[in-house]
Amino acid sequence: MPEERAPLSRLRLLPLRLVQFTAIQLACCAFPIAFILALWGSAAHFTVGGDRYRMPTAVSFVLIGVFLWLAENIGTFLNAWRYPDQQAGWHLVHVGKLGSWALLVTLSFVLVAAVKAEEGVRYGGGEARVTPPRRRRRAR
Which domain of life is it from (predicted)? Predict the structure, then answer.
């Protein structure tokens, strides 16, 4: 018969459990935090009806991810396809897929920007210009 632990021995495990919990929570939050920090200050510019607008890049990637996730849910609801866990009945696709869609959009955006920058060098006869050129200071 296994002997029961005294309540005091359980208290000794509390710091270990807190460290484990903190490590797991930080690992789950690492990608979104790194994502926001990497894109801090960058913006996507777009035109609607002749008016020019600006939106933070991280917000645009997350919104695109949300709309793709909604489209995925509509597709599975209308039986365009089903995931193995939806064979018994339809339910929402897991919210964790939002991160997957946002990552896909981010990688696609970066790859297209890299290809377009290279095209500018190859076919444009000039330097790759991903960001606007820096302004030169006047000598005083």
Answer: Bacteria
Find, among 55, 62, 61, the residue nearest to 41 by Cα.
55
CA dihedral sign of residues 48, 51, 57, 62: negative
What's the pTM value of the predicted model, to 2 decimals?
Answer: 0.58
Please state the domain extents for the chain.
7-123
Name the token pair of 62.
């997350």
Long-range contacts of 128-136 (CB under 8 A, 24+ apart): none
Beta carbons within 8 Å of 62's beta carbon, 6+ residues apart: 98, 102
Q: What is the pLDDT of residues 51-65, one digit of tens each?
A: 888 988 888 888 888
Distance CA 127, CA 124 (A): 8
Which residues partner with 55 through β-bridges? 44
Amino acid at 98: L
The letter for the amino acid at 23 is A
